[in-house]
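Sequence in, structure out.
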Amino acid sequence: MLVLSRSVRKGECLLNESSLWDFRQQSDYNHRRDMADNIQPPSAPAPSRPGTPFEIGEEFGTAKKNLPPVKIVLIAVAGVALIALIASLVQRPHSATAGSIDDVVSVEIPDQNSIMVAINVSFQNNGIKPYWIHTIKADLDTTSGSFSDDAASPADFDRYFQAFPTLKQHALAPLEREAKINPGGRIAGTVIVAFPVTPDAFANRKSLKVTIQPYDQPVPLVLTK
């Protein structure tokens, strides 16, 4: 009886240990299953949105878009240049007088390959101030070169006329330095000069100029024939 009782207890203990093992196994399985159910799969990345296109040329502009057409620029530049040219011409100093070379007589100086020339000139003062003559000179341009000479002193005119009577044929009163021409006034006179050229070279000259420089004006009066 005692042996049976012990066997029963032993069997109960083994049964209890087996049941406890099964329980633990089932509990671990349930725990792992619950954990697996609670694990969420990683979410898929959100689709990327297309970026806003950025054009540096559109942002800051280009020369073609920001600058005016080339034709307009060239027209504007040409207009400015034309205005500047007109302004310079208008503001450029000019002589307040106008005149002409009216007569020219030349004679040969013997044995010197030179000539003496009497030049009659006339001009009018169109300015608002008196015109005072400071210097007078003549310039000759020929195929053999250019020559210049200051006007002879009126004190020497009679001597020249005696030596070369031809010079006196059309001569007027000497055009003198320091002569004064009032506003609106007119003057005419003779200038005598000499050039180291032959009569033929003078006759075939390119040009003959008389330059009259006043005292208080920057631009001289230049008469050409």
